[in-house]
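Our preliminary data section would be incomplete without showing what the modeling component actually yields. Below, a chain of 71 amino acids is followed by its predicted structure, encoded as tokens that our downstream tools consume directly.
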Amino acid sequence: KAALQAYREAVRLDEGNAEAQFNLARLADRLGLRAEAVRHYRRFIQIAPPPLRAAAARARQRLVRLEEPGA
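Predicted structure:
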């Protein structure tokens, strides 16, 4: 729970922090916070710099699964 709050605070302070967006999305996903995970995966994909393209590709794949009906 502390990690979740820390990532939320990091994103609140700097919405353009791609790594914090990605880590928050992954943690929310693991905790079953689907809507929050989707929101942060989407934001990460929008802002991911070139060195994080592989992570952005994984985020896109996960986002597709989370947005499937009945997922």
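The longest helix spans residues 34-47. The mean pLDDT is 95. Preliminary results of this kind motivate Aim 1 of the renewal.
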